[in-house]
From TrEMBL:
Subunit record text: Homodimer.
Top EC class, one word: hydrolase
Matching PANTHER family: KYNURENINASE
Protein name as it appears in the record: Kynureninase
Main function: Catalyzes the cleavage of L-kynurenine (L-Kyn) and L-3-hydroxykynurenine (L-3OHKyn) into anthranilic acid (AA) and 3-hydroxyanthranilic acid (3-OHAA), respectively.
Classification of source organism: Bacteria, Pseudomonadati, Pseudomonadota, Alphaproteobacteria, Rhodobacterales
Tagged with keyword tRNA-binding: no
Cofactor(s) the protein requires to work: pyridoxal 5'-phosphate
Residue(s) carrying N6-(pyridoxal phosphate)lysine: K211
InterPro entries in alphabetical order: Kynureninase, PyrdxlP-dep_Trfase, PyrdxlP-dep_Trfase_major, PyrdxlP-dep_Trfase_small
Pathway terms, separated by semicolons: Amino-acid degradation; L-kynurenine degradation; L-alanine and anthranilate from L-kynurenine: step 1/1; Cofactor biosynthesis; NAD(+) biosynthesis; quinolinate from L-kynurenine: step 2/3
Keywords on record: Hydrolase, Pyridine nucleotide biosynthesis, Pyridoxal phosphate
Catalytic reaction(s) noted: 3-hydroxy-L-kynurenine + H2O = 3-hydroxyanthranilate + L-alanine + H(+); L-kynurenine + H2O = anthranilate + L-alanine + H(+)
GO molecular function term, any single one: kynureninase activity
Length: 398
């Protein structure tokens, strides 16, 4: 059956009078999440106390939810586990990949990657020393830059600023042909578009859940390890829950089987409960339907804004194959324009130096919201309503 996007929309808390185009940064609250978390707090933590780890299945949450996310990203069963933050998972994947390719010393990434990924890679190579380095090239030059010196490619599939999408299949194939491993960051892919990790032969992948997957602020990240590597990848962060037998309290670390070894610390039970409620919505979503709707929404927004706001410059690719599920426009006063939009009830966000960023999540955004957002943006641009001091004062979070 085709995905019923009216049904999915009805399952989110969407404040009256707000057009929310920032689900690519923080997804809205699923209506079932509050009750699900309350049950975890009151009936499980409150009544079961520590026995909840067994009776309520808390210890199995990371793998159970990992498999549900795995369906959305084309991962084989038993290859995705939840926990920690995305930066931690980036570090884990990179460290494991480098150790598996010991004759190479180069991590290849691009200048459009999310800075935190680059910071983690830089910190790792500084710790390792011994000639390890991080090499960055322009996003469009990644494929040509993969040579026989590269140990691992670390690429975010969809650029967080522009929405430009890398060709995961081509980059992974080139990496393997040159003897490198691949690490993919799916922060702006998981829940935004179809991903086929198994099909392209990806080695490692990581991602967060508070954007398109709607787990709430600070929601836990996930990590994928291809089955062929699952018992060979040594976790650099050897946490007790990644141990073969955590409750043996062995003083010597022995990695667990498969993806379990990529667990580190105690899982965030309350946040995972919220994520489980969100995943219930995804059970009725076909990813091909989602992609078709996303492209139709973004096409309509691009056409509307370009027709009504000639001072804004499109930063997102027009080509469907190269576009994620967001649209970005450039303007020197992008921050002030976005603040004026937010004040008028259209919530997007700003990314330095000049990007107005809009996320399109078909689960709760339709064509009516797109048209109204275009009208409001056009009015703000035509009247210069953004040119006020209060819209130019930078907040901590942009």
């Amino acid at each position: 059956m085709p995905t019923d996007f009216d049904t999915t929309k009805a399952q989110f808390v969407l404040p009256e009078g707000i057009i929310y185009l920032d689900g690519n940064s923080l997804g809205p609250l699923p209506k079932a999440a509050a009750a699900r978390v309350a049950r975890t707090v009151e009936a499980e933590w409150g009544q079961m106390l520590i026995t909840g780890w067994n009776k309520a299945g808390w210890m199995d949450q990371p793998a159970r939810i990992g498999d549900r996310i795995g369906r959305l990203i084309g991962a084989e069963p038993g290859t995705v586990v939840m926990g920690d933050t995305l930066s931690i998972k980036v570090y884990q994947a990179l460290a494991s990949a480098l150790e598996m390719n010991p004759t190479r010393r180069v991590i290849l990434s691009d200048t459009g990657n999310f800075p935190s990924d680059l910071y983690m890679a830089d910190g790792l190579v500084r710790t390792l020393g011994n000639g390890y380095s991080l090499r960055t090239v322009a996003p469009e030059d990644v494929l040509d830059a993969i040579d026989d010196t590269v140990a691992v490619t670390m690429i975010t599939e969809v650029d967080y600023r522009t929405g430009r999408r890398h060709d995961m299949g081509a980059i992974t194939a080139k990496a393997h042909a040159m003897g490198a491993l691949s690490v993919w960051d799916l922060a702006h892919s998981a829940g935004a578009l179809p991903v086929d990790l198994a099909g392209v032969g990806a080695d490692f992948a990581v991602g967060c859940t508070y954007k398109y997957l709607n787990s709430g602020p600070g929601g836990p990240a996930f990590i994928y390890v291809a089955p062929r590597h699952a018992d060979a990848a040594r976790p650099a962060l050897s946490g007790w829950l990644g141990h073969e037998a955590p409750f043996a309290f062995d003083l010597d670390y022995r990695p667990g089987r498969g993806i379990e070894r990529m667990r580190v610390g105690t899982p965030p039970v309350l946040q995972l409960a919220a994520l489980e409620a969100a995943m219930d919505i995804w059970d009725g979503v076909d990813m091909a339907d989602l992609r078709a709707r996303s492209l139709a929404l973004t096409d309509r927004f691009i056409a509307g804004v370009e027709g009504a706001c000639p001072d804004l410059t499109l930063a997102t690719p027009r080509d469907h194959a190269r576009r994620g599920s967001q649209v970005s426009f450039r303007h020197p006063e992008g921050y002030a324009i976005m603040q004026a939009l937010i004040a008028a009830g259209v919530i997007g966000d700003f990314r330095a130096p000049d990007i107005l960023r809009f996320g399109f999540t078909p689960l709760y955004i339709g064509f009516d919201e797109v048209d109204r957002a275009v009208d409001i943006l056009a009015r703000i641009m035509a009247t210069g309503a953004w040119d006020r001091p209060e819209f130019k004062t930078r907040a901590k979070v942009t």
